[in-house]
Specification:
The protein is mainly alpha-helical and about 425 residues long. About 60% of the residues lie in helices and about 5% in strands.
């Protein structure tokens, strides 16, 4: 039996660990209804939610969904931690979000200071309690709209919009970029490359690119109207009217969320350390022939492709960052020092900044991932590398090799290929 709806993730303070615990009443409820899901899905979440709404005074079905939400919240904590492990502690973040201990009563003090106690059921969620901030796990369930989104995506929105989580992130100079802003700030070329790498069918690809271009053009105006009405940028969500106004018109947010999934999939770091000699040996195993001259041509083509993709992307990044150099000359200094082969720790000292500031500005792994994606896509379109598209199980392996070639330091110069490209662009 899948335990997604009967095991609750919570923080154990004595050992500073995060563990799932069995919620017996949730397990018994599912057993009595003969409900057994192989894994949590959008349909199973919807079914449990409908049980909650149809049995408003019963705490158990809502407790089942609380278990499911706890794992989703924990996944969010893990995602944030993996992207910022040099800045924050996983348990320290989780204890602010995983605050559900499985009890069936919710206690709080009202305006008069008197303690109020309610059973946590759907009837309680329907109450319009003024001046009461719902704990994050109940806010997710209370606002959840299964027609608009799946539960994981909904959890991500509420998690990243929670004031306590955002304040904690702000202490470490970590900012969340919402789906809608991320899509608006991403170029159509990057979206296209990500969708191709994600495996989107060619017939669907053109529609998705048109949709993204339409979204970018309408997003700005929609945010202006929202700000004029609410005097804040926070809280904007694409309405049904906005979705219908896109080209092609959309019935829901699914295709926009698919773009974000493709971006996240494409930028997910997966790298193992390999030296240059190893790279040259390993790359020859990827559908290379026994003809030495042919293999040399392939290696030459590969190097030229890496150079072209690296130059294009670094030029784009530097041109964007140069707009900020007048106000902050340390940004230019940071890029110059990086191009000379300095480590981020050394650069931080020279620029009188924390290492996190340097990491955020340079984003070396992120750039390496972007370039590797572009290289891989370009190779698939080259006649001499046509066989790559026929071995999808090795695509991640090839991408890792390419990324490592871009980022690894050479023994003689103690600089990476990426550092040399940055220097060339700075000197132009």
């Amino acid at each position: 039996m899948n335990t997604s709806y009967s095991y609750l993730y919570f923080c154990e303070f004595p050992g500073k660990k995060i563990s799932p615990k069995n919620i017996k009443s949730a397990a018994e409820y599912l057993k009595n209804l003969n409900i057994n899901y192989e894994k949590p899905t959008r349909d199973s979440d919807k079914e449990i939610y409908k049980l909650i709404a149809s049995d408003k005074l019963n705490c158990d079905p809502l407790l089942c969904l609380r278990c499911r939400v706890s794992k989703s919240i924990y996944n969010q904590c893990e995602e944030v931690y993996k992207n910022n492990d040099e800045k924050i502690d996983l348990f320290d973040l989780s204890r602010r979000a995983l605050i559900d201990d499985g009890r069936k009563n919710y206690r709080f003090r009202d305006d008069s200071g008197k303690i109020q106690k309610y059973l946590i059921n759907f009837s309680f969620l329907e109450k319009n309690l003024q001046n009461i901030k719902m704990p994050i796990f109940l806010e997710i369930i209370k606002t959840f709209d299964y027609k608009r989104s799946n539960l994981n995506t909904w959890t991500k929105r509420i998690f990243r919009g929670d004031s306590e989580i955002r304040n904690y992130m702000r202490e470490f100079d970590i900012k969340f970029i919402k789906t809608w802003a991320k899509l608006a700030d991403t170029s159509s070329k990057r979206i296209k490359n990500s969708l191709i790498h994600y495996g989107i069918n060619k017939d669907f690809l053109d529609d998705m690119i048109c949709l993204h271009q339409s979204y970018k053009s309408k997003y700005r105006e929609a945010k202006k109207i929202y700000y004029a009405k609410n005097n804040t940028q926070q809280g904007w969500e694409p309405s049904e009217e906005f979705l219908r106004s896109l080209h092609p018109p959309q019935e829901n947010e699914n295709n926009l969320l698919l773009m974000e999934e493709a971006l996240n999939y494409s930028f997910l770091p997966k790298i193992e350390s390999l030296d240059d000699e190893n790279f040259n040996e390993k790359i020859k195993d990827i559908e290379f022939s026994q003809d030495v001259n042919e293999n040399e041509l392939k290696i030459k083509s590969l190097i030229e492709t890496i150079k072209k993709s690296s130059t294009e992307l670094i030029k784009e990044v530097l041109n964007k960052d140069k707009k900020k150099w007048m106000k902050d000359e340390e940004r230019k200094k940071c890029w110059l020092l990086y191009s000379k082969g300095m480590s981020q720790r050394e650069i931080a000292k020279k620029c009188n900044h924390k290492q996190g500031w340097v990491s955020k500005l340079i984003r070396e792994n992120f750039l390496g991932e972007l370039i590797a994606n572009d290289v891989l896509i370009s190779l698939k379109n080259k006649k001499e590398f046509a066989n790559i598209s026929k071995i999808p199980e090795e695509l991640d392996y090839i991408k890792d090799l390419i990324k490592n070639q871009i980022l690894s330091l050479e023994q003689i110069t103690n600089r990476s290929f990426l550092m040399q490209i940055v220097e060339e662009e700075l000197n132009k």
